[in-house]
Amino acid sequence: MNYFLAKNKDVKPCKGKLKGYTISVKDNICTKGLETTAGSQILKGYKPVFDATVIEKIKASGGDILAKANMDEFGFGSFNINTHKVPQNPLDKSRVTGGSSGGSAAAVKDLDNHISIAESTGGSIANPASFCGVVGYTPTYGLVSRYGLIDYANSLDKIGIVSRKVRECKMMMNIIQGQDFKDSTSIKHEEDYEKKSLEVKGMTLGVPKEYLEASKEVKEAFEKTISQLKSKGVKIKSVSLKKNANYSIPTYYLIAMSEASTNLAKYSGLRYGVEGNTNLKYNDYFKQVRTEYFGDEAKRRIVLGTYARMAGFREQYYDKALRVRTLLIDEYKEVFKEVDAIIHPTMPMVAPRFEEVKNLDPLAIYQMDLLTVGANLGGFPHISIPMKKEGLPAGIMITGNHLEDFKVLSIGEHIEN
Amino acid sequence: MEIKKVLEVARLDVKDEAKLAKEVQNILKAFKKISEVNTQNVSKSLHPLKIEGSLRDDEIKEGLRREEALSLVKNKNKEYFLGPRLK
Amino acid sequence: MSILKIKIGLEIHVTINTQSKLFCSCSTKQSSPNTQVCPVCLGHPGSKPVTNKEAVKKIILIAKALNCELREELIFSRKSYFYPDLSKNYQITQFEEPIGENGFFESKGKIRIKRVHLEEDPASITRTNKTLIDYNRSGTPLAEIVTEPDITSSLQARAFMKKLLRDLQYLEVFNGEDVIKADVNVSVEKSGFKRVEVKNVTGFKDIQSVIEHEVRRQQKEEVVENETRGWDAAKRKTYSMRKKETEADYAYIYEPDIPIIDVSKFLGVKLPKLSDERIKDFIEKGVDPVDADIICMRKDVADFFEKTTSEPKITSYWVRRELLRVLEDNAVEETFLDAKEFSKLIELVEKKTLNENIAKEILELMRDKKIDVKKYVEKNNLKTLNDDNLIEETVKRVLKENQKAVEDYKSGEEKALQYLVGQDMKLTKGKAHPKKTNEMILERIE
After folding, report:
1. In chain B, which among 28-57 make CB contacts under 8 A with chain C?
2. pLDDT digits 0-9 by tens, A314-363
3. Are C209 and C169 in the same domain?
4. Which pLDDT tens digit goes with each residue over A84-123?
């Protein structure tokens, strides 16, 4: 099923709290001595000389890493098809796992007692969690150190957790959370997530009316879940995220691609990774390596991201997007004044088949991220919980205000039961 | 803007420049939608929430040994990384 | 003939003297290639920058000393371009919002300072027949200082640079021995002030040479449009650079790995006295302006002078002549010289207890080891011979033993007198009071 890339031949069994589990990490998280490629050919054979901070924390808690989980190249994708070895959905091998943390979700679905550390920029944890029928939790931006995370978009990347049960997310979050002086954007906030979940009775959940466009089976499952919540004493309120519905996709992509295009400049055949022919003059050298080893989607995003920040274009694309971002975050925050959390389907459909997505227009693919992008752009904590009892899985997504991770996990745990 | 110029700035070649140019044009056209939004007096959000920036004390800490740093490449000699021609 | 109208602007890069680099904890000391490196300054995937507090404080000092308007927030940008010495193929710098703007610096006229900002240095490339890259320098903090084109001659540029570097030493943000780099902009009225930028000029001397060369060249060859040129240090001339090489779109974004940092608490820092003030202080104490200027060229020397307790004017002579000579290239701190002992030495000479020549010898010793002057003079019996009888004895002997010299003097050779005095000095091991000796000899032979 291809959900793993490099495997750790010398993996030790986990001890302490993690005893009995195996752990994988998305391949964009640096593991010392273990090949780390971020799903890209340009880092083929690259073995980092340091561990990411989350890896150090896992090891310090008695854990060890079994394998690197497959992913879209550098996180660029929603189906995990933008990579050399494409993983298959464990529930139906003709379908995608979702992306970009496709390997993490597939592994957790397929293996018992497995937890995978994943990463989300625009929805890359929630999306595959929804398609594979597992739990995918993305913390508030800054709660988990990004030191050692190979960057897609630095102001958007968040390390999170994929697991079968919410309880396992809580356990792992206690291990990987914490301010890291090596990551200037990590924030000072620690909590005990393993304490007993909050009661959802009496909470108010907001359903954004613009986020209900979905396939029949997804809509039905969502409505059923909402009814069940109502019967448990949860208040459901209709809310509006109009600005996000209209502008979160372009805003997200313009910022993400601008940052990504600078992050990917370092892959040029020097210092690590694939090398080139030093008899070439330097610009030709760089071009040779990058052209040969970057995939098509990576090239497309580099080009888009470069455009968006070039002189004469920057103000209307990159700068503008940064301002619109403020308004979109404010819109979520206004809604959080009236509700405890926001709830809607994670993805508008179940996992598509490979044929269905193979020839899709890039723009069409970007637009499928609508439901997850708003929360990610705003760095809000969110979790996807499987909500369908039969057939192909689909997730329900709960989004909370900044730093309200515990509330989000509580609601998630409640829905899970 | 010319796709050739952008590819030059990004140090990339693609097999089908025309196809990429069209895709990029379409996508940017769709993204141009954000110009509809009134952002007068709206500040830029460089990060999604306020982060208390912290500064590092000016102390020396051990980094990598030279062999470790050079172990990641084939293009090297005993002391230096070997790069492409400058002229 | 119309006066030559010239506009010169400088964009100067100065290394800030922190212990560790700007965004990582690697040492900034000179060392064997690629031994002061880590994942951050090597641009390893996943590594992240963390800003050096001392570098921030120092850039603020510089911006303040240059009378800039200061920002309360520190905001970095990514400047994207590709080159083998750039470990991430972008440089973390300050583009949109530099820490200081709209300042000025007085140096034979008021030179407006456009901006002052903080950025990281690329690595260094050694070119033999291969391109060898050393990342020790990668990530070192740099101050970039940009002037408006207010400088009007190479002499003024030289004075500006001298004073700037001097004051940067007074701020203790810059090591005098470090090399500075600049992009030099020169334009002349003859071509309507079309701007020529000469990039990557290294060192004080070359910067001046570039200006002189360009002013001459632009008078002869017309400048048709704004242009960028390179400097061939070996051939001592500028050359045209292909347009393609010079038109770079840096496509800046804000640095997303570093949040906006509030630096308002650092802005209230009090500046130490800069060279102008120190010179003024010394002149007020009675020091000659020219001597004060020379003493203040180096902060360590000025500080040393400040600590002396002997009469300022006389001490200033000793400092500007003897002390500088004895120091050579060493910093005062690198020697054993002590200001109080130095003062005692001078006072002994003034009291005529010690001959100047002997004092100068002792000064040299004081550089290399700790010396208590009074004790040393006592122990080695170096006090000036003032006792007339004793001197008379030695003079008699010298005259007796050097008859020829006496004859030479009598026949008109003035130099013979010096010879005789010298012989007496030899005899008394330099201790005889020179004036008295001279007088006594003359008395006897005239």
Report:
1. 44, 46-47, 51-57
2. 999 999 999 999 999 999 999 999 999 999 999 999 999 999 999 899 99
3. yes
4. 999 999 999 999 999 999 999 999 999 999 999 999 999 9
| pLDDT tens digits along C250-305 | 999 999 999 999 999 999 999 999 999 999 999 999 999 999 999 999 899 999 99
Q: Given a contact as 3+ CB pairs under 8 Å, which chains touch C?
A: A, B
Domain identity same for C243 and C316: no
Determine if the peptide bond prior to C107 is cis (ω within 30°): no
Nearest by CB: A50 against C39, C83, C249: C39
* Neighboring chain C residues of B57 at a CB cutoff of 8 Å: 53-54
Nearest CA in chain A to C251: A310
* C120/C261 same-domain check: yes
**Going by CATH, does the domain composed of A4-241+327-416 fall within 3.90.1180.10?**
no
Residue A207 and residue A240: Cα distance in Å, rounded?
8
d(CA C251, CA A114): 43
- H helical segments located in A215-281: 216-231, 242-263
Domain boundary among C244, C266, C288: C266
Full domain range(s) for residue C280: 275-379
| Chain B interface disruption, residue of A283, A288, A325, A359, most B CBs within 10 A | A325
Q: Does residue C115 lie within any of the structural domains? A: yes
Q: Same domain for C310 and C257?
A: no
Cβ contact A46–C82 (<8 Å): no
Q: Name residue A120's beta-bridge partners.
A: A158
Q: Please report, for chain B, the start and end positions of each structural domain, with discontinuous segments joined by +.
A: 1-34
Q: Which of C336, C352, C379 is the last residue of a domain?
A: C379
Q: For residue A346, what are its two tokens?
A: 């994670």
Nearest CB neighbour to A270, from listed B32, B47, B83: B83
Contacts of C101 (CB under 8 A, 6+ apart): C68, C69, C71, C114, C115, C116
Confidence of residue C432 (pLDDT cuts 50, 70, 90): confident
- Pairs of CB atoms within 8 A across A/C: 102
Q: Nearest by CB to A271, which of B28, B42, B81?
A: B81
